[in-house]
Amino acid sequence: MNKKLIIIMSLFLALTFSLSSFALEIPGYEGGIKNEMIYQEVIFITGEPILLTGTIDIRKTERSNRVTERYTYKLANPQHEAELSRTVSIDNDMTINGGQKQEVLSLNSYKETIEVKGQKFEVDNNNIQWSKSNIQDTKPGVIYFAGNWDARKNYTINKDEGNVIVETKGTVVGYDQYWGETETQTLQHFIQYNKEGETPLRWQGTATVEAVHNRTKDYTYEANAPSQISFRGGYLLTEQQENILKYSYDLPRFTDDGTLKSQRNTGVKSLSLDTNPLNKRLNIPQMKDIGGHWAEGNILLMASLEAVYPNSNYFGPSLPMSRGDFARAVAMVMGIVPEEETPQRTRSIQTQKEEDKIFLDVSSQDPNQKYIKEVKDKGIMVGPGEGKFLPNQTLTKAEATAIIVRLLGFENMAPLQNYNTGFRDDANIPKWAKSSIYVAKELSLVGGTTDGYFQATKPMTKAEAVTMLTNLIRYLQKELRYDYRERIINY
Amino acid sequence: MENKLKKTYSLILAILLLLQLIPPISYGIEGYTSHPVYNGVENPQDQLKNFHYSDISGHWGTVPILEMAGLSLMRGVAPSRFRPNSSLTYVEALTVLVRAIGKEAEAQQLGELQAPANVRSLLLLSAVHNWGKGAVQVAVNEGIITNEEINQIINLTPQEQENLENQLERQLARFQNGGYSGEEIAEIERQVKEKLENAVWNRPVPRQQVAVWVARALKLQGIYGDKIVKTYGFDDWEQIDTEKIPLIEAVLNQNIMTGITPNTFAPRDEFTRVQMAQVMFNVGEAFLVQRGITQKIGRVMEIEEIIQQQQANEIKKRVYTILNQDNSQNYLTSDAGRDFLVQKEGGLSLSSLLEQGDVIYYFINPQQEIIYARVVPTKITKIEGFIDLVDVDNNRFAMTDFDGKKHLMELPAFTEVMVNGVPASLEDLIYGQEVKATLRQGMVVSIEAYLEEDPYLHGYIPPGSKTKVGDVLLISSTEIELQVEGEREKYRILPTTIVTRNDQHAKLFEVKEGDRVILSFDDIYSADIASIKVEDDERHITNIYRGKLEYVSERNKEMIINSISEYQGATWNPHPQQKISIKVEGDIYLGGNQITLKELSGQTGKELYVAVENSYGTQRAAKVLVKEGSTILYENKVTGLQFGNSRMVVENNTISFNEGTIVVQNNRLVDILNLENQQSIYLAADLNQGRRNATFISIEYDGMMDDRIDGTRLVVYRGRIEDLGDYSLTLGRLAYQLDYLKLENHQWGEIARPQKLTMTEDTYVFDSEIQKEVPTGYFLNSRFIDPNQIQDLDLRTRIKNNHYIGKSAFIIARETTLQGETTAEILGINLTPNHFNYYHILNTDHSAIGEIAEVDLDANEMTITNLRHWNTLSSRWESVRTQEVVSMEKATILVNDKPISREEFYQLKQRAKVYIIKSKASATHDDAYIVVVEQ
Fold it and tell me: Could you tell me which residue ranges the SLH domain spans (chain B) (predicted)?
């Protein structure tokens, strides 16, 4: 008896584990949003927009390259006397090709029942056409993805009183990285309502639903109130999800007894569901030599993130940034932290691990070695070639820029062939760094001096490097989000 | 049991691991790297002294001779002489071979053992002699030389035998009177005899003999039968001793030896010392392995000078970083005590000869020391042509040069690949590409590939892919000025520039100051805008609050305000909610200075002005200003606006403004620069120490009838339809002594001359008396049409009777001024056949502006807030504090210049700006006749 229970429990655990292994939080494909407690979605099938609230249950089981997703919706809106239940099972076949992942989704089973004021709309397997596909591109620091789906649902009205055909064209686009994640879904519905019987009713309507899921990591400096405390304050890292639902509709108007009226019912509405922020206090840096420095805030932040060594007493903001230290900083800022070898209790002795020789000049004793290996493996920093990394050499502005652009995977956004970056010392920009510098300038990730020089080959000071990374964080938090959210749903 | 085994095994492993973790007592830099480090050998300087050959400079065999020196295989006859062209002797040949197989020490020991004791101090048999003897013995033991060969060598002709005996006698005669004992004499005789006998070994060795010995030393198998090919290629092969042919063929086969000419092997000719050096050089690694020497090939990547502190001693070290052909890495080190020989460009010296970039062969002895390195001559060849094949997996590369010759190259790991001057990898090379390969002594060091560039594509980007996001600061028909992160940037608007809003086409004048826009460009250099995307009203200012700051949460970016009043239609009304939580991020000001959220929390308890946007259902502060002082309110026109010293005059009061002043126009937060002289504003100011500082300015928007940036403007006429023509309408006087009217600056003015206006099929015609739309075609052609086609009875009668000619109407037209010429096009006509305007004094029409609060489609009414009426006496807008319901039953409505039909009233949006021309119908009710909407 007990054994059985344990088996069941462990099975259950295994199931939940496979669930949590999925990174992107997609609450179904129907343009809904959710937070920790509720799920919301709008339906237009009755001719008026009804916001339904309830729960969604998502289960995913993974088998080699196939994921089966099972969605169970239970939604209601008491004011409109509306209720919806929907169970969907979808097969997701994945093909991984280098840094790209292709997903082709197909419907296994579908059942949906909507009941509004006594009227019942139903769809099942036989009345739905459905297809969806996504593509995902993995870049060193960011994963980008986009997808499309098309569906045609044919609802029956009270079983035999006609039908409602809802044609939906959907697109999804988004990204995922350490500082933020956005997924924007756009659905275009075309609704044809044909009720037959004693009082026939026919109308057509359109609706656009835009659902945005966003997760942003943010940081604030929390100062301590007492003055007699060993540290003045520290950074707090928060992570919060913002989910936005925006919909516009063009539907008919009805009289109280349900017949059509002149003119149309149009409108735009938006609402959001935020999650409670997750808090994490960061280390308190010990540096003594950065107080009052122009980049103090940035340095403190980087030290708190352990991107620069937080425990050393001195930082030396005007000293040059070494390539090795920058590798560490980039890895920490982007959350690309090499996996620590966790001592396992079952094995008292660890087998000897083969030493990775990544660069001629990076010894295994180098404290930055694991970060250098990681940024090298991800293709973020490749070294000047010839098997060297030059960890103890200075980092030029051109190098740092190229690294940041490579992180984002934007190298190919630059113009073709010969062009001018617009800096006065354009001619002095090394050819290999030109496209990165152009892209970074366009995205305001880097700038020139006040008089318009870029100074590509000038070694960066630690303060400058740290500021550049702080800019990168801001870009990853805000600008990228604007491009994927506001730019799509507000324009 | 098994477990136990595992345990012991793992224990051993652990110990091994631990041992590895403890760094060996290191000499030098081992501890700093995970790659092998080879130190130089001790005292190479002294060794070097033995190789100062003065007789080899310019000799073809310099390289092998110095290689022999570096590998200690052949020495000179003296420190300064190698005698390259002297004949090689039997014993020299054997000594070299014995040395090459690593048995020199053995040979020397053997020679030493057999060396007879010297008679007194006479040195008759030298070490050379003894060691030579040992070498011969080792050679015998190793099977290099056969007994038959020895016999052949030491077998003397009778004449030689006689000569030898004569010599012996002559030499012995010198010792006869030296007072040696008989025993001693006998010993001397024995030694002298041995020396003389041994002299046969110092005779020149024939070529065929050397070839055979080398073959045996290398343990080559003889080649027999039809496999013998090379030997037969020589004309003189028949002179070779029969038993030597198979081994000679093997040696020839391995390219260790060649003939003296392509057709002559000269088997019985003498062999020179330099030829021996060359042969040993050709054999290369095969012998080295026997001596435990490893040969490696690599490139000097870096040379560093390191100073090592060791117990008060300073050791200067040079560290050479070597990247090997197989992509592994080593370090070579040298210092004052340890170094290694280097051959470079015909010279032999120490490691200081090495330079960065040198490709070297280098040799490591069994003690893991570097003994010698040879720099591959820095002869650089360049091959230019086209790529045939790129084999990424095997690091191979094939190309055809411009002469049509094919080249197949192995690519060492250190090969640099460039495409158009930018670092690339092997994968980036493509078939047919023009390419230049640079070789250093046959080793490919760099590949430069070129891709043809089309000059027309320099700087090409996909059209529209360059974008810019910013807030509109100023806009005209040709230019837009944006605020992008505090910077002002100007771009050019072309007639081809596309304007969209919510993905729908929009007119340029719909882009308002304060709007956020995304500009896109087709070209990276040009400021010409390809398209302007305008943000919808998601971020528009929905509320202006004045309230007391209660709490700021820095990390949640939130604040709570209480005692709130809200600005609505020029009044501050108490807000129904006691407390409101507002998201707040940036744009917080205190007296003209931007402050942080943290600083704002220090202002708790003070009053704030907050401009709020309601994006995505959340209240967000677009701008916050801390109130400092007592409030004074004005509602009037701006006079005397001076941006230079940030001052303006309102109602004869000087009011200063700053960065923090909240300026709102058209529901958008705008810059103070958008303020214009003579504009009607609502202003809240703080009176602080006698100064008045503007805190909140609402620019009352009445510009719907003004000239617009695209050169158009809307005009409204009130007149009588005198005539209808071919797409034209003639407007004439309203009544006797009353000319027709035109709305100018919100006032009706009389115009005497009749005017012909253009009509189109799109002109909207509405009869507000019977509240029916008149199909434009019928209206225009009312003289020619068959009225029976009109179904509506009332309309039919009216059209039939030319009812509208001579009757009054409101006409709204769009004037376009292009190059000084003005044309007017009628957009809408509101027919009012039974309105009679007898007196020009009594005018019941008046203008009003406001915002739509609500549209009731069923009642055909709209509710207007922020309503202001035009006061014709004072020539200004006067606020109405209440909302007003306006009937749309008689109205012709224009939305963004497009007339909408009776069925399209649902398109009117809340908070849209309206300009209404209405008429008093009764004491309580107004009828709108012309409604201009911007939304």
Answer: 48-111
Do residue B519 and residue B611 come from a single domain?
Answer: no
Are A169 and A311 part of one and the same domain?
no
Burial of residue A134, with CB atoms counted within 10 A of its CB: 0-12 exposed, 13-18 middle, 19 or more buried: buried
Q: How far is B33 from chain A (nearest CA, A)?
A: 5
State the DSSP code for A62: E
B459 contact residues in A (CB cutoff 8 A): 415-420
The answer, for A8 touching chain B at a CB cutoff of 8 Å, is no
**Exposure on the CB side of residue B485, measured as CA atoms within 13 A:** 7
B301, A360: Cβ pair inside 8 Å? Answer: yes
- CB pair distance less than 8 Å for A365 and B903: no
Domain of B397, CATH number, reads: 2.40.50.140
Residues of B in contact with A418 (CB under 8 A): 453, 458-459
CA distance A63 to A72: 21
A274 interaction partners in chain B (CB closer than 8 Å): 618
Could you tell me if residue B9 is inside a domain?
no
> Which tokens hold the place of B199?
């002299």
Contact A220 B465 (CB under 8 A): no
Same domain, B298 and B277: no
Mean pLDDT rounded to a whole number for chain B: 84
Q: Tell me the C-alpha distance between A306 and A338, whole Å.
A: 14
Report the domain count for chain B.
7
CB within 8 Å: B555 and A238: yes
Please check the confidence at residue B444 and state whether its pLDDT lies above 80. Answer: yes
Check if the interface score ipTM surpasses 0.90.
Answer: no
3-state DSSP assignment of residue A328: helix
Taking the Cβ of residue A385 and every Cβ of chain B, the question of whether any pair is shorter than 8 Å is answered with yes
Q: What percent of chain B has pLDDT over 90?
A: 16
Please check whether residues A36 and A128 belong to one and the same domain. yes
Q: Is A225 on the interface with B (CB under 8 A)?
A: no
- Is A9 contained in some domain? no
Going by C-beta distance under 8 Å and a sequence separation of 6 or more, which residues neighbour residue A183? Answer: A24, A25, A26, A172, A173, A174, A212, A213, A214
The minimal CB distance from A490 to the residues B10, B535, B858 is found for: B535
Q: What is the pLDDT of residue A358?
A: 67
Task: Please give the helix or strand (H or E) that residue B371 lies within, else none.
Answer: strand B369-375
Q: Do B473 and B404 lie in a common domain?
A: no
Contact state of A352 with B329 under an 8 Å Cβ cutoff: no
Question: Which among A351, A364, A416 has the least Cβ separation from residue B459?
Answer: A416
Minimal Cα–Cα distance from B136 to chain A, Å?
48
- Clarify whether residues B500 and B545 are in a common domain: no
Work out how many domains chain A is built from and give that number.
Answer: 2
What is the 3-class SS of B302-361, one letter each residue? EEEEEEEEECCEEEEEEEEEEEECCCCEEEEEEECCEECEEEECCEEEEHHHCCCCCEEE
* Whether residue B718 sits in one domain with residue B821: yes
For residue A320, the 8-state DSSP code is B
- The answer, for A444 touching chain B at a CB cutoff of 8 Å, is yes
- Give the domain range for residue A30: 14-278
* CATH code of the domain covering residue B543: 2.40.50.320
Asked if residue B12 belongs to a domain, the reply is: no
What is the rounded CA–CA span in Å between residue A197 and residue A193? 13
User: Does A5 reside within a domain?
Assistant: no
| Angle formed by the axes of helices A369-377 and A323-333, nearest 10° | 70
Determine whether the interchain pair A415/B14 forms a contact, defined as Cβ–Cβ distance below 8 Å: no
Average pLDDT for B321-331: 83
* Residue A229 and residue A201 in one domain: yes
**Residue A202 shares a structural domain with residue A296:** no
Q: Which domain holds residue B429?
A: 380-452
Q: How far apart are CA B912 and CA B824, in angstroms?
A: 26
